[in-house]
Amino acid sequence: MQQVRIHGPADVRLDEVEAPCPGPRDAVVRIAACGVCGSDLKYIELGGLAGPGPAPMPLGHEAAGIVEWVGAEVSDLTVGQRVVIHPGDDQLGRIGNGGAEGALAPRLLVREAARGGRLFDVPEGLPLDVAAFAEPLAVGMHAVEQADVVAGDKVVVFGCGSIGLAAVATLLDRGARDVIAVDLSQRRRELALELGVRAALDPATDDIWAQLAALHGTVPSMFGPMPAACAYIEASGASALIGQIIDHAAPHARLAVVALHYAPIPTSFLMILIKQLTIRGAMEYPARFEDALDLLSRRDISPIITHRFPLERFNEGLALLKGSRDCGKVMITLSDDA
Fold first, then answer.
1. DSSP letter at 207?
2. pTM for this structure?
């Protein structure tokens, strides 16, 4: 079968590989759809992950499909079951994130399926390509949780790529009263508006902090009036934003950083102290991964998936994701089941 693998820096190929060889505690999933994301682009740039991982490194960690085979010791799965794949952790073994398996292939070997927590049932009526968005949705959901957002909060989301839009969808689903999105891309701002944000601002033309103060109102502080947002989600990766948020945030505001910032960022800890801000990183998923599937079954967020490519054109999908701000989630479809 064919599989997308990284052979070195900027060297990603569609290889011919052996079909999965499962054991009694494993399962094999016929992949219907698998998303590609910014972390995949970074893996390609780096030539994979450092350490004892496989070489070449398989890609693909945002996937859904149909169970094709189950081992004798797997009791909670059946052949024909529609499932979403949890890409795992260091204990269970990762999928598409430096592990031995990757979901950008027609079939995926899911090791230790018998332990549970790897494959989750897709709700009836939910298309498998939309179900594959559960993984990035879970990432955005965890960012919302790390910001301690509750119903009625005023929230700003910086960056409306797939993770930022996932955070937007979660915020609206959980009753955040007044969500404002910020992104350079007109198309991504449109997607945020389709999801239901109050406003979508363009940092290239809008005075962001003046607009946030006008939309959310202000609260007093020893530094003067500040926008009244309770929480911020940083999903853009723009390093300058961290300092701007710290400078403009209201006292006791919360910031969740879910974007990847590779370089050190100067930070005013004096401002953090005086304002008593809370800043948290947001890595991976909520404790209950299937919360993302529950949200997908309640709300139609399928417009986030803006482009679909077959496996043999995966390079076009990667190029679009790398070169264009005007896309949401890029999905690779691998079978008619999607």
1. -
2. 0.95
